Amino acid sequence: MSFTQYKPVATRLQRSELAVPGSNPSMIDKAAASAADFVFLDLEDAVAPNDKEPARRNVIQALNDIDWKGKGKTVSIRINGLDTHYMYRDVVDIVEQAGSRLDTILVPKVGTPHDLTMVEALVTQIEEARRLPNRIGIEALIETALGMANVEEIARQTHTRRLEALHFGVADFAASRRSRTVVIGGLNPDYPGDQWHAAIDRMVTACRAFGLRAIDGPFGDFNDPDGYVAAARRAAVLGCEGKWAIHPSQIAMANDVFSPPPAEVERAKRILVALEQAAAEGRGAAQLDGRMIDAASARMAQNVVTVADAIAAKAA
């Protein structure tokens, strides 16, 4: 193991992340009552320009009025892009007026590490000025060719460790690369495989190298549950720990795909017990069900058990 290691910055259960337009208060109320682990209140793409300021006010009210933690939710906001005049007021108004109720801020279209600096500076100053009791995390959307080209440098944001997660934004990424597709997250039959595999794989590797969570983005056709599940499974195999839900019907599917099956959890626990017994006997490896297991097996098994424990804690 390298002497240089980056431990997980923050551990949050994020199997399903429900996107909710800040311009629709009734949808916000429904999101709070849903089974989603994570909810982000959107001020960016889902909100028309004329609705930006009312949406911001709706989000502030929803953060303050709804008991998100009591409902088992992590709550986030997606601010407007750094290239718009809406962004600074999104951060200032919401963090000043409801920052104590906010868990993370999702920054769209991050292209370079410097794109996070302004947001981090604003949040830090407001936290100090308002003496907020909590530390607000930052999550970055990797959804442009520039962002993917710089994803390792973006993940290597170690000066404040406020950055917690990277998300793959497939629609804007496809547009940025001029990929031949007009669907969000689906596969193109002209491509022999998954055209998003390389991008997600690269982002996940960058996340895990520097202690961040990796989250897969949206699947646009909410009338295609089989397609959603297939996309979620591909992301899970690559190491993502959750996926966006743009419709409530996708929440249960995400929760199911990113929850380890009971048999997998049971085997993981047996691996840990077997290796603990082997270590007590002075052995570094052991056999279980006719297969060799060692320290690497323990690390994989512990990942499964950690997720299972978080799910159990939420259900309690």
From TrEMBL:
Keywords: Lyase, Magnesium, Metal-binding. It comes from Labrys wisconsinensis. The keyword rRNA-binding does not apply. Its EC number is 4.1.3.34. Its cofactor is Mg(2+). It is an enzyme of class 4 (lyase). One of its GO terms (molecular function) is citryl-CoA lyase activity. Pfam families: HpcH_HpaI (PF03328). InterPro entries: Aldolase/citrate-lyase_domain, Citrate_lyase_beta/mcl1/mcl2, Pyrv/PenolPyrv_kinase-like_dom, Pyrv_kinase-like_dom_sf. This is Citrate lyase subunit beta/citryl-CoA lyase. Belongs to the HpcH/HpaI aldolase family. Residues 16-248 form the HpcH/HpaI aldolase/citrate lyase domain. The keyword Magnesium applies.
